[in-house]
Amino acid sequence: MTPRFLSVLLLAFLIGGAVFLWLRPADVPPVVPATPTPAPTQPAPKPEPQTPSGASDQFLILAASWQPAFCEGAASKPECRQQGRNRFDADHFSLHGLWPTGEYCGVSSKLEQLDRDGRWSALPPVDLPAELRNVLDQVMPGTRSQLERHEWIKHGTCFGADEASYYGAATQLLAALNASKVRDLFAANIGKTLTRDQIREAFTDAFGRDAGLRVRIACADDGKRRIISEITIGLWGTPGDTPNLGKLIRAARPTDGGCIGGIVDPVGLQ
């Protein structure tokens, strides 16, 4: 290799190195983790508005009796001695009670014991406006035996409102039942047999999808007969001043149907 060739090779190497140093990218600075952008501050949830006493959602059972059947086993009670074919409860449902979860809420042990002993006349009178009292006396024949005092002490005290609000809701719910196809079914079949399926279907027709699944039938044996004594209806929600029976029924959970059927008892001992 000649000296001239070595000189040319060295010069080419130097020029190439210079070009490389000029063209290469600058060193990439170290990556600094970005400070995470804080999520937008969510406004604090507003507290739920406080509902009036007794107006909060709750599970309830509306117990509606068929009074002629009740009287088959309680003929000596005043409400049964006075029953006649022209009285309201001869062909309408009667109010047994409206039952929240729990019993004897805030009731003294003395009053609770009086109630448990069946000494209802010794319980304090229920304070109701005159108009509501008249309605209650009609739809709850048991007021002649102070049933309203018992129902208030045992169940109404857990409703969360005063006596007037409790019985106002109960009587309106019963009125909706008595204005429905369910009552029509019973009235048209006095002395005949109704099945559980027929009754539940009538509830669904009257109060909406699957309402009948929230209804339980109670029966009693009267000699060789089986008679329908009561229906209990599951409810969920806030009854309010103008309760919507269908809405409250549909919001409740289904229940077993109870008795498979029985006779719709007519007035008088059979």
By CATH reckoning, the class would read Alpha Beta
Number of strands: 6
Which range does the strand content fall in?
15-25%
Mean pLDDT: 85
In whole angstroms, the N-to-C terminal distance is 138 Å
Low-pLDDT ranges: 1-55
Write down the Rg: 38 Å
- What coarse outline follows from CA principal-axis ratios? globular
Tally of DSSP helical segments: 10
Class inferred from helices and paired strands: alpha+beta
Overview of the structural elements:
The protein is α+β, with helices and mostly antiparallel strands and 270 residues long. The chain has one domain (58-263): Ribonuclease T2-like (Ribonuclease Rh, Chain A, Alpha-Beta Complex). Helix content is 37%, strand content 16%. It is built from ten helices and six strands, in the order αβααβαααααβαββαβ. The chain has helices spanning 3-23, 67-72, 78-81, 109-116, 130-139, 147-154, 163-178, 181-187, 196-207, 245-251; strands spanning 58-65, 94-100, 193-195, 215-222, 225-237, 261-263. A four-stranded antiparallel β-sheet has the order 2-1-5-4. A two-stranded antiparallel ribbon has the order 3-6.
